[in-house]
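Lecture notes, unit on protein representations.

Consider one protein chain, 295 amino acids long.
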Amino acid sequence: MNVVLYLGCTIPTQEYAYELSAREVLPRFDVNLIDLQNAACCGQPLKGIDNLGWLYLASRIIALAEQQNAETLLVLCNGCHVSICEAKHIIESDEHLRKKIAEMLAEEDLEIKGHIRIRHLLDFLHDDIGPQKIKQVLEHSQDFKPLEDLKLAAHYGCHIIRPSSIERPDELDDPSKLEALIEVTGASTAKYPERLECCGAPMLATVDKESFQISGNKLMAIQNRGFDGVITVCPFCERMLERQEAISRVTGLDVTGIFSMYYTQLLGLAMGIESEQLGLQLNMSSIEKMLNKIS
């Protein structure tokens, strides 16, 4: 399966563990990752101030991906994914903007033909590969380590299910794919009332105390409900939720008893991959406590 991989801005500059673990895990499911050439920002940060600039940058990612020998564009970041999908929706439904973007892309000899699928890691793993295939690969691995001692909370993030006006990787009101993927590793999970609440990251640059309060409330709820940790699929959410020490200091809530990690890291642990290869040494939450528990 040839897949064009788009990392966006945050993953290759700050959230290295997401890239490390994805590159380590996905090829074990016969996925050939092809790096997107000449990639730039998805445009999401521009959306509120330069709508055409955003639309061009997001559309450019699609056009670049279509130049490469693959049928799927895999996006790891929730923000990048919603930006690219919304751009695709607009250029398919608005003739004026479609022509304008086509003219702009033509200056780079780029064109959108519409033949590539856009996938987030979540629906790529759940819908394209599938829990059953993941389970088979795990069970046939001589290093398989069922994570039966862990009870884990799923955190989806806002953009993976919103806005519902465009196709999203999971259902708005009751998503379930991340829980299904967690269970494949042998860990237990459960739906909890706060699971669809925001992590607070979008507010961090403007009202940091309120942002930390939102994330602290969510982590406290997860901790109080008996979970060992929280699993994410978004670099912005992970960067926010793993700051337990800072959150505790700012809010007065002690949320240092749990850990936060990417699903790709969790899957890699179940495969028996060494923690350093999965970038777990880069996580800021209480990973050592979790590693001791599963060992």
